[in-house]
Amino acid sequence: MDEYEYYVIMSNKGPSLSILGSDILLTGKRIEPKRTLTYVFKDPITITTLTDHMMAPHSIVSKKIYEVLEPMNINSIQLLPSRILDFDRNIHEPFWAIHIPLKIRCIDEELSDCKILGSIVTRIKKIVLDKKVLSEIPLNDRLVFRLKEHSTIKLYHKSVKDAIEAVNGKGIRFVNIEEWTRGSYFKK
């Protein structure tokens, strides 16, 4: 297995959600929420569209995906109890928000075809990760992380991706980081 093989996690046909209140998951620190996080639908959608993975813009996962991630004890993520409130004010649970406080600056600027402007990456044609930077961090400490150069890009190591895919969850897909572009969100 290539210890430097990473994938961007994406939703596939799931509803878009937004968090009720402030989005505490944008922080780069571990958090201790005082209550279950509540998400609401952005668009009128029926319950039949709930999937095992949804974006808000971070990942919200069902019990099926939670039961894969929780026993892996991935120290770079937090699985936070969450619920979803639909337009009829029905509550759907259990769900978990995946909080990824770990950010790693690891885009290989020489091998990548993109423009890095501080904490934003634009004109993405290809992103290549810097293996030297990653080699300095033990694999178990970087199984899941966000790019420091563009923190909305969440990367999952191949071993985590394979474990999630093994349960055939609905609404989830992965794209290899070296094949990923902004247009990947619109492909199926």
Brief sketch in words of this structure:
The chain is mainly β. The chain has helices spanning 63-69, 131-135, 158-165; strands spanning 6-11, 17-19, 37-41, 53-55, 59-62, 78-85, 91-99, 103-104, 113-117, 120-126, 144-147, 150-157, 172-176. The strands form three sheets. Strands 2-3-6-7-5-4 form a six-stranded mixed sheet, with helices on one face.
Notes on the protein architecture:
This protein has 188 residues and is mostly beta strands. It has 2 domains: 14-99, no CATH class; 102-186, no CATH class. It is 11% helix and 37% strand. It has a 6-stranded mixed sheet, with helices on one face. A hairpin with a 2-residue loop joins strand 11 (144-147) and strand 12. The longest helix is centred in the last third of the chain and has 8 residues, at 158-165. The two termini are 26 Å apart.
Strand-helix topology:
Layout: E1 6-11, E2 17-19, E3 37-41, E4 53-55, E5 59-62, H1 63-69, E6 78-85, E7 91-99, E8 103-104, E9 113-117, E10 120-126, H2 131-135, E11 144-147, E12 150-157, H3 158-165, E13 172-176
Parallel strand pairs: 3-6, 8-11
Antiparallel strand pairs: 1-12, 1-13, 2-3, 4-5, 5-7, 6-7, 9-10, 11-12
Order of helices and strands: EEEEEHEEEEEHEEHE
Q: What would you call the quaternary organization?
A: single chain
Strand content: 35-45%
SSE class:
mainly beta
Structural domain tally: 2
Question: Any idea what the shape is?
Answer: globular
Say how many strands there are. Answer: 13
Radius of gyration: 16 Å
Strand order of the largest sheet: 2-3-6-7-5-4
Helix fraction bin: 10-25%
How many helices? The count is 3
Q: How is the biggest beta sheet arranged?
A: 6 strands, mixed
How much is the average pLDDT? Answer: 86
Our measurement of the CA-to-CA distance between the termini, rounded to an integer number of angstroms, reads 26 Å
Q: Which parts are unreliable, with pLDDT below 50 for 5 consecutive residues or more?
A: none
